[in-house]
User: Which sequence fits this backbone?
């Protein structure tokens, strides 16, 4: 439908797309040649004086030449192209400031533009105070603002948390918006800076990981050496105590050798005189110790 629509039909298509539920990206529609005809003429329709540069304008592309030319020739249709650009790149405050140069918006279009305005605000910061949102979206009170945000969350336009105590919206995620051609270079610079920063962070993390791994290996080696030394010391102490125990046992046995031999009975007292006489002829013998 977008490829075949011309003139007023293309303008109607822009009106429907900006009001349609669930449509938040418009770059493909902006790039349709027949949609660009709404606000710009074809290259072949330009007068040679425009191409030759007799008009003091810095043209960067054919599209720019067509836009400037047709804006002065077809103001009625050019408003719808500006409307499409508004929904693709701009915010509700831009609409308020240029309302006279745009077609009137219905309630669905105004609500969608406010959704997209929240997305644009969230692209610059994650915490959005209610006071800033009330001003940017021209909301009469906090209750209606929170209802608008809740509806946006249900439609998966954004994800976040309403902090009623601090009166702020904490944004976690938003849908993407079209990138304005004039902002592409800045976006590329931001991406390059992000890539450089990410590379530096990764390099720092790699160095930190290597340092931690080296320190862990060192600590393991120190612990292993400590355990080895401890076991050697324990073995030496055990061996020394064992040798001392054997030596002490031998000394003890030598000292008690005399107590293991029976004394002659005649050297004992008179109580067992008869027993001593019976055993006098028996030779002395060593008692076995068990």
Assistant:
């Amino acid at each position: 439908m977008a490829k075949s629509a011309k003139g007023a039909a293309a303008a109607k298509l822009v009106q429907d797309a900006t009001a349609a539920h669930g449509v938040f990206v418009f770059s493909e529609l902006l790039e349709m040649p027949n949609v660009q005809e709404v606000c710009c003429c074809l290259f072949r329709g330009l007068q040679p004086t425009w191409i030759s540069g007799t008009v003091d304008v810095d043209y960067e592309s054919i599209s720019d030449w067509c836009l400037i030319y047709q804006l002065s020739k077809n103001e009625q249709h050019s408003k719808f192209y500006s409307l499409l650009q508004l929904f693709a790149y701009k915010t509700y405050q831009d609409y308020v400031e240029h309302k006279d140069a745009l077609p009137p918006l219905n309630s669905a279009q105004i609500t969608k533009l406010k959704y997209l305005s929240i997305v644009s605000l969230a692209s610059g910061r994650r915490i959005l105070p209610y006071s800033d949102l009330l001003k940017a979206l021209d909301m009469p009170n906090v209750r209606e603002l929170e209802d608008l945000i809740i509806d946006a969350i249900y439609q998966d336009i954004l994800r976040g948390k309403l902090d009623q105590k601090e009166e702020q919206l904490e944004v976690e995620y938003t849908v993407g918006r079209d990138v304005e051609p004039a902002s592409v270079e800045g976006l590329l610079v931001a991406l390059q800076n992000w890539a450089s920063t990410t590379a530096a962070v990764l390099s720092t993390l790699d160095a930190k990981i290597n340092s931690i791994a080296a320190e862990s290996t060192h600590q393991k080696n120190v612990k292993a050496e400590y355990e080895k030394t401890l076991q050697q010391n324990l073995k030496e102490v055990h061996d020394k105590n064992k040798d001392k125990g054997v030596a002490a046992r031998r000394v003890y046995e030598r000292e008690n050798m005399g107590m293991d031999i029976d004394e002659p009975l005649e050297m004992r007292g008179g109580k067992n005189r008869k027993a001593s006489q019976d055993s006098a002829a028996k030779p002395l013998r060593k008692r076995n110790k068990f």
Remarks:
- Confidence is low (pLDDT under 50) at residues 1-5, 41-73.
- The radius of gyration is 49 Å.
